Amino acid sequence: MRSKTYIIKIPPIAWMRVGVSRAANHLKFYDRQANDKLYFGIEAARQHDDEPLFDKPFMLDACFYLQRPRVGKNKKLGYPVHGDTDNYCKFLLDGLQSVIFTNDRLCVVIHAKKLYADGGTEARTEFTITEVE
Q1: pLDDT recorded at residue 41
Q2: pLDDT tens across 31-59, in order?
Q3: DSSP one-letter string for 52-98
Q4: How many whole angstroms separate alpha carbon 9 and alpha carbon 43?
Q5: What parts of the chain have a pLDDT lower than 70?
Q6: CATH code for the domain of 120
């Protein structure tokens, strides 16, 4: 059973819907996060090295470390409430497709949590991919 852990040292990014432009009486769809996915994928590819892509069903165990707000009522909360956990997972899976694994539909189990990056640590995404049998 193959498994690997990655640490992407950029703030977690939540998935957004594809944008729509209505110009000249036709619709144009575009991915507003293409650059973010590219940068995220490059960071992951550096850690993946030349290993083969995961091509069997796998489990994703992810932890999204967010910056604690400097002001406001949410500063005192123990867990982040902004940003949907499922949208962080969607972005992670979209950004890693063809970089770490062949297709995100191979993900059969997801364990995910959001925490604050405290104690002098930086916002980041840590995840482990483990093949399942």
Answers
A1: 86
A2: 656 777 788 888 999 999 899 999 999 99
A3: PPB-S-EEEEEEEEEPPPSSSGGGG-SS--SS-HHHHHHHHHHHHBT
A4: 8
A5: 17-33, 71-79
A6: 3.30.1330
The whole-angstrom separation of Cα 34 and Cα 112 is 23
Neighbouring residues of 78: CB distance < 8 A, sequence distance ≥ 6: 116
HSE (side-chain half, CA atoms, 13 Å) at 93: 21
Is the distance from CB of 64 to CB of 113 less than 8 angstroms? yes
pLDDT at 17: 63
Number of domains in the chain: 1
Both structure tokens of 124: 């980041």
Predicted pLDDT of residue 100: 95
Let me know: does 130 contact 3? Beta carbons within 8 Å: yes
The residue range of the domain holding 30 is 3-131
